[in-house]
Amino acid sequence: MTMTASEILQLQFDRLAQEFKNTLGNFGAQRLAWRPAPRANDIGSMLWHSARAWDGYMFYLDGAAELFVTQDWAGRFEMRLKPRKSWVDVFTEDQVAYVRERPRLFIEYVDAIHVRTKGFLRIATPEQLAAPVKIPWWPEEKPKAFVLAHIIRHS
Questions:
Q1: Short-list 123, 133, 47, CA closest to 149
Q2: How far apart are CA 96 and CA 44, in angstroms?
Q3: Centroid of chain to Cα 44
Q4: What is the pLDDT of residues 67-101, one digit of tens each?
Q5: pTM for this structure?
Q6: How far apart are CA 149 and CA 12, in angstroms?
Q7: Helix (H) or strand (E) holding 132
Q8: Are strands 132-133 and 142-143 parallel, antiparallel or unpaired?
Q9: Rounded to whole angstroms, how far apart are CA atoms 79 and 83?
C-alpha cells in the first residue's frame, strides 16, 4: 500500500492527539502541576505550550485565525483575558492553572485543533505541502510539510 505525505502526517497527528488525550485523561491537576525541578515548567505548562503552538502554527498553514480566538477558548477556560492575535500571549502561570484544573476541556481544545489539522491535510495536495511558508520567528521559509513535522516533533 502506498501512502501520500498527507496520509502519513494525518497518522502522526492522530497519534499526537491521542497522546494528549491519554495524558490529560490520566493525570489530575496535581500531576499536571508536577515539575522535575523547582525552576522547570510543569507538565501542564508543557502540554499547554504544545497545544497553543500547534493552534498558532495552523494560521501560517491554512490562513485561518487560531481556534483559541475564534472559538473563545479563553472564555471556556474562564481565563478572564482577551488574547491578542498570537499564541505567544497565553503562557503565564495563572493562565496555565486554569487549564490544569480543566483537563476534559483541554482535551476538547486539542480535539478541535486536531479536526482542523485533519481538514487541512485531507485537501492538501503534494504541491501545497511543498509550498514555502514564512514563520516570522524562523530565519527562512520552509515547506508547509516541514512546519507540520515541526509541530509533531515540538509536541
A1: 133
A2: 7
A3: 13
A4: 988 998 888 888 766 555 555 555 677 777 878 88
A5: 0.91
A6: 9
A7: strand 132-133
A8: antiparallel
A9: 10
